[in-house]
Fold this sequence. Notes:
The chain has helices spanning 2-11, 13-34, 40-65, 72-100, 114-196, 201-223, 229-246, 268-279, 310-313, 319-331; strands at residues 227-228, 251-255, 263-264, 289-295, 299-307, 336-342, 347-355. The protein is of the alpha+beta class.
Amino acid sequence: MIDRLTNWIKSHRLHLLIWGIFIFWETIVIGLISGVFGHPMTYAAHYTSIIILFYVHALYALPWVFKNDTYYYWRLPLTVAFEVSVFIVLSYLIDLALSSASILKDGQAFELNLRYSMRTLYRGLYFLGFSTGFFYLKTYLEEKKKSDLLERQRLNEIIQRQKAEEEVIRAQNAFLIAQINPHFFFNTLDYLYHNVLEIAPNVADAISSLAGMMRFAISADKIGGVIKLGDEVEQVQNLVYLHQVRQQMYIRLEIAEGVEDFFVIPLILLTLTENIFKHGNLLVPEEEAFLRIYFDEDNFYIETFNLINQVITSIKSNTGLSNIGKRLTAAYPDNVSFAYGSDGNSHFQVSIKIALSALDQGVTFSYPSLDIDKE
């Protein structure tokens, strides 16, 4: 309660200061000049009614008057007349009560006659004038605050627009650089392929597989949408081939007949296969890893299985799999099931199930021709 009162005083300290100075002037200074002082209860009661009139007029009456520009010309005089009438009656009732309590000694002071009404009318109009000035000052400050806020918002919008334009320029530059870098990369691979084709055909095949896989990854990442599954299966085979060239690894692909014609979002199979090579132990013949793709009447399935590489497991993260989950959920909401984890026996499994009805949706695309010219 004390904190509330303290906060109220802080927020209204200017009002309290001005009223304090005004009341001090009218009660003490004028009293000293005239030699006439009233009873404290008289001051308290009448200044309370004056303060009520002041704030009711400024905060409620005038906002209602000017709420509609069409009616203010008759609302204003009627409102002022009503307020003054209430103020005269309230002042009379206060004086009557003070007289009944033997606080007010002058009997003429509280008789509701013309003289009393005119004196009180002057007093009421006097404070209504100050209240009207306060209303216009308050309105001006509020409008200025709104104007300043709108100006700040406009400047912020200009700044954000400039930042967005700068980001667009940077993105355009990055796009141009991205176009140049792959172009240089694939031209180099093409050069290497043609120069080693006759000397080392196996190396040339590896270069061709690498080029095809990289072109696919770059094109699929930029275009988006869905692709024919057979296109990505081909790149998975390239990826397996590239790893097998360096070292014998035990992994098999089980691709059911007909799945190549399905259209799915790109880079799912490549990411899963790369995950197997990155985190799996493929050097044990008895623990052959596999990537299996098949379907039934209602669903399409992708499954992987591999022995966990215990050395890498301690530092690995599931960022790639987490991204797959987000992409699948975005592409096939309420039509996909995605699970992965260890089986508790040093093996890692991934299972994806997508409703066949969901595979009919989406925009299809085919990536550009990826093969290096082998002629």
